[in-house]
Amino acid sequence: MKKRRKKSANRNFQRKKLISRQNRSADNSLTSLSNAVLLHLYRSNKALSLQELIKQFPPPAPADDTVTYELTRLHRLGHLATDRKKRFTISPGTKIYEANLLMNPAGFGFGTDLCTGDGNRIQANEPYISRSHLGSARHGDRVLLLVSDSRRRGKTEAVIIGIIERKQKTLVGYFFRGNKQSLVHPEDPRFPSSVTIDHSAQSASGDINDGDAVIVSLNSSTDESSRPHGRILEVLGNPDRIEVQVRMVTEKYALPHQFSPQALEESLQVDVESCSGNREDLRDILHFTVDGDDAKDFDDAISVKKLRNGYRLYVSIADVSAFVKPGSKLDLEAYDRGTSIYFPTTVIPMLPENLSNNLCSLVAGEDRLTVTAILDFDGDGELLKKRFARSIICSSMRFTYDQVEKIVVDRDPGDRRTFKYYLTPLKSAADLAKALQKKREKRGSIAFTLSEPYIVIDKEGRISAIERKQSGFANQIIEEFMLAANEAVAQTFAERGHDTLYRIHERPDPEKITDFVAFSKTLGLQLPAHQATPHWYNKLLAQVKGRAPEYIVNNLLLRTMQQARYSHENVGHFGLSAEFYTHFTSPIRRYPDLIVHRLLCRLIDNQRTKSSSNKVYPCKSIKEAGLHLSNRERLAITAERDMTDRLKCRFMASKIGETFEAVVSSVSDSLFYIELVSYFISGVVLLSGLTDDYYLLDKKNHRLIGDVSGNILKIGDIIEVTLLDVELGRNKIFFTIKKPLSANKSISTKHQK
């Protein structure tokens, strides 16, 4: 009896404890009213009395006693402070920040670019925001976060208090018609809810079919319970057309693709004569350009002279700074874009056509304004002397890479006769490039061997092939000269102690190096000593060159690297093993280069002023410029990859059932990734679709093991796969294993249990 009574008492105690915990949890949680209170106090940026706070609410305002209770509760939780006049402010210890919402397709999000109300950035990890704490916020919104001290998977957690600004005003999706209303399914999976389109609100319906791509204007409602509503702004049409895909990517990433009338007018009203004064006349120097067959703008020209003890290199770059004045509308829009964006079929330029394809394009036979790096080297490629000049040149010839390759490498008799006048300068250019390349390799510049895909589009606008992008020694000549010029400019700023925007590449992440070292043992690699130096990388790459693991080792080593970025602080460039590096050679398509040009021209003109009226960037500081331009570059890379992936999927859609050779690039407990050897296309093989065995993940050794057969499938294995399906809307390609190749020994190796 006593035992029964004791058990009953214990159950009652546990029940009361659970109820108490639930009540306490509910009391500590933020309600919609408490969120509104904190948002109003944050926006007012001053202490408010009860009545002043209630006036901030839209009608119908909550009752006085309801707000009083919420204020008391928030004060008890430590989120609010009061003064002698019983006015309320957000407590200084409360971690409330503005942030951008970055959604994950799985339904949760992260806060990025955190800053305080006065605009100071917070150096902190991106806090995790669960689905239940998102409210009505959408991907891309500027939101107000309350960051807690709790952590989830190593990240701090946060709650969205309110929406400061709806950043995503439009989205792209697929239209499907209903009887009374229609739906648009967002193409971007970070927007999980379909958008309701009322037929009466359609402003651009036109001829529209189910499945057509459309641009939708979203409403600004913050009601959490309702599906987002919108109206159709533009019908893009059949998403299978490449030009429609280009627009979809452009809208998805909100890429500025149209210049304002004022910016276009400024680009057309450039007074070339007024920009031509005080320049060094280099028109008697034999300049020429070397670019790809399909190049439309030529922003760099070179000239090489053989000297008694070495070479003199001229690298002349289009002087964009002469035409784009700081603070002009043209300048502001170029800064906003940050970079040109290159898709397989089109370009979204940083500057209007009159500049990028005309005045700043070093076309043969036309006088052009340039900034020239004049560099003297000895026979071993050591820099002896450097100087820079605002110049005027006249390029004498436009070469393609193929032409130069035939002249200096293949020594084609026909081309050598045609371009006899250029044989000596081209030979000097090739000899200097070899010396510079050898010098770079000696100091440790990392030599990855990664192939890039080249998508071939036929005259009808269809994808006819995906080939390996060719890069021969002619490409290397120009690459070496551009690297040399960039280093010389960066070194000049460092020596003189003047601010500039460096191109930096920080040391690799030690944890990623450790993971790679552990993985490399599964490949049987003998790693050289002294990890995480450029020389260490090169020794490892040389060890696998021409061998089966070369492809996978190059890719995995690349993943250990940090992303290169722009910074006002010089920490060197790890990948190039360079102490000084910047971007100087392409101001037509990169705004950081334009900043460097403006600063370099000041050095040339001996202008040392640092007054704000003479800033060369349209922001508060060069540090802020570096952050913004790094972000714009990353966005451009993401958009370009997205476009390439879309075209790859459409290329593969007609090949379902075909068999391909592939290399295993990654494994997990539910699938593994493969790369097609022929087409540079990646896809997945779902383990649930394999019928020969049940495969288990051996995470430590980066491999899958058949539970019954003991067969091993690991990263780097070459296998045959059959294309099962292509999901165009998600850019996903699914394969299954056909059979292991006979040459692949590791597949048939039995695992000893």
Task: Compile the SSE list and pairings.
Layout lengths: L1 H27 L3 H13 L5 H5 L9 H13 L3 E3 L5 E3 L5 E8 L5 E7 L12 E2 L12 E11 L2 E11 L4 E7 L4 E6 L8 E4 L14 E6 L10 E9 L4 H11 L8 H8 L3 H4 L4 E2 L7 E3 L8 E8 L2 E9 L10 H9 L3 E2 L4 E2 L4 H7 L7 E12 L4 E12 L3 E3 H8 L4 H6 L4 H21 L9 E5 L5 E6 L4 H24 L5 E3 L5 H11 L13 H11 L5 H10 L5 E3 L23 H14 L17 H31 L6 E9 L3 E6 L5 E5 L8 E4 L4 E4 L5 E3 L3 E10 L4 E9 L4 H4 L5
Parallel strand pairs: 10-12, 13-20, 14-21, 28-33
Antiparallel strand pairs: 1-2, 3-4, 3-6, 4-5, 6-7, 8-9, 8-11, 9-10, 11-12, 15-16, 16-19, 17-18, 19-20, 22-23, 24-25, 26-27, 26-32, 27-28, 29-30, 30-31, 32-33
Describe the structure.
The protein has 753 residues and is an alpha+beta fold. It has 6 domains: 1-28; 31-92, Arc Repressor Mutant, subunit A, CATH 1.10.10.10; 170-239, OB fold (Dihydrolipoamide Acetyltransferase, E2P), CATH 2.40.50.140; 261-504 and 567-640, no CATH class; 510-561, no CATH class; 656-748, Nucleic acid-binding proteins (OB fold (Dihydrolipoamide Acetyltransferase, E2P), Beta Barrel), CATH 2.40.50. It is 31% helix and 26% strand. The strands form 10 sheets. Strands 5-4-3-6-7 form a 5-stranded antiparallel beta sheet. A 5-stranded mixed beta barrel has the order 8-9-10-12-11. Strands 13-20-19-16-15 form a 5-stranded mixed beta sheet. Strand 32 (718-727) and strand 33 form a beta hairpin. The radius of gyration is 31 Å and the shape is globular. The two termini are 54 Å apart.
